[in-house]
Amino acid sequence: MTVLPDSRIVLAPLAGGPSTPELAAAVARAGGLPFLGAGYLTAQALAEQLERTRALTDAPFGVNIFVLRDRSVDDAAVAAYADELQPEAARVGVRLGEPHFDDDGFDAKLSVALAAGAAVVSFTFGCPERADIARIHAAGAEAWLTVTSLAEAQTAAQAGPDALVVQGAEAGGHRGNWDDTDHVATPLQDLLRTTAAAVGLPLVATGGIADREGVRAALAAGATAAQIGTAFLLADEAGTSEPHRRAISTAGETAFTRAFTGRRARGLVNEFMRRHPHAPSAYPHIHHLTAPLRAAARAAGDADGINLWAGTNAALARAEPAAEIVARLRA
Length: 331
Hints:
There is one protein chain. By secondary structure, the chain is an alpha/beta fold. It folds into two domains: 1-68 and 103-239 and 314-331, TIM Barrel (Alpha-Beta Barrel); 72-102 and 252-309, no CATH class. The protein has twelve helices and eleven strands. The chain has helices spanning 21-29, 43-56, 75-92, 106-115, 130-138, 150-157, 188-198, 212-220, 242-249, 271-275, 285-299, 322-329, and strands at 9-11, 33-37, 62-66, 120-124, 142-147, 163-167, 173-174, 203-206, 225-228, 254-257, 265-268. The strands form two sheets. The protein has an eight-stranded parallel beta barrel with strand order 1-2-3-4-5-6-8-9, surrounded by six helices. The chain has a three-stranded antiparallel beta sheet with strand order 7-11-10, with no helix packed on it. The mean pLDDT is 97.
């Protein structure tokens, strides 16, 4: 790993709004390695964000890309969930989205990231093809793969990455696992120790790390760096929505849910999660289905109608400039 800063602090991608060029640049100037989340953006929008980032800083940055496979889903369960959501859509005056599969523009976004000079391209939800990793290396960049189990780590190591991002159960947002099963997620410390003992690659720890003690614990357990997301959600430079900021500021219980996207993710428990505990496993189909509902709730400032992704230590997040957050986290 040649791009890792001395601080050992990595800004998580935070796709879906909180990720901004301003946040990435601020973290980079403070001595961290920032990632921009390519998820949900068009390739053109990603290119514009990367151009803006490069205008703000000449420090290294990374880009995170989703790896999605077109797997079969239970169409009847998706249709039943749409029926379940219809009253809510009618109440706020929107039409539900059309559930469908897409690969989130994988090839186009990889091309954009490399053309923009990303120092690292990381992947989540799956393992890219060896040819993709070779393409990253040919561009002089590093490839990092997200894993959530020892089995995934061992498989990922065979693909030729430069590092593994080891995601513990405490992480906010989507689980990075390569399937969407209901298996019990492994706590970060346990996963780090077993992975460090079995895989000869640098490990980047992520999941529930929100203060200096958490960073030190991750490094002591075998990580080379700590990737941190929730602690930056209240940063001045983050694009976190106003209702999401309010919820983080009064952080309560977090739990896993598929209600918003059809894929397990950890967020602050709200009414939407409580009303829809049995959403089917169907990503990104459910994401597209609920997108109009979430957009309407966000516009109305309704924290009970949007996904409030957050890790288990969300209560430690503070509203302050990103540079001060990096300074607090430095081990």
